[in-house]
Amino acid sequence: MKSLDPLEFNQYIVNQAREVIIDYNLIKPKDKVAVGLSGGKDSVLTLYLLADLVDELDFELVAVSVDEGISGYRGEGINVARIIASKLDVELVEGSFKKEFGYTLDEIADLYQSACIPCGVFRRYLLNKISNELGADKLATGHNLDDEIQSFLMSFSKADFRRFSKFGPKLDRIHPKLVPRIKPLWKIPEKDVGIWAVMNGIDVHFAECPYSNTSLRAKVKNYLNQLESERQGTKISILKSFSKTFNFQKKEIIVGQCKQCGEASSLNICKACEMVEDIKNRLK
Description:
ATP binds at residues 36-38, 42, 66, 142, 147. The protein has 284 residues and is an alpha/beta fold.
């Protein structure tokens, strides 16, 4: 097997990300871009790539980390995020479930079939809220090719076609308080992200979340990896096939504000506030 050339591989990674950023106009001059930085390989690569493009594309960069409150796991990731942000001279702003909602994920994980249910709601809420408070024009996440097709197949299996409008490398701003998300790693396979980190000696948090095995995503991920091992190119073929859905006319979503917290919501009460009330009732 031919060994990888580090310079060629790194250039491939950069080219893939730059192609997505340019082709889909993810970042405009003078934008302020917040990166969701967990300390894992995907978010760290996203920050490295964007930090290298700051001068070329003329934008401002900041990082946001969220402490979900997962004992023996999240602390290491947050520490890596702090080290990487400091190394790249990028401001890091931190938030936490405990401070914002009154609970750590460990305290409420057993209340649900999967801890990923409250984690997803609270994490999305907090990343958006902090990014908006920072005046960010875009929120860059570390979603790679594998993440995207996993999400697509999960929505497809549930016939949740409304979520199709949320796929793709870029989302539009549909409310002043909702920061549009961008995905620079959209065409980069998860395996290649891991290779990049190891090949360059980047100290990232490789540990899997202890709650991830309870999620549907974990099962879909294993299935796709098995398919890819048997038929190389399956993942990129899936990405190409569902990319055609981006041409569908997107249904207009009417977004207002949550009556409790004031954050953007398509309902009178946002999912985060609704979940906090649900948790209180379950703990009674």
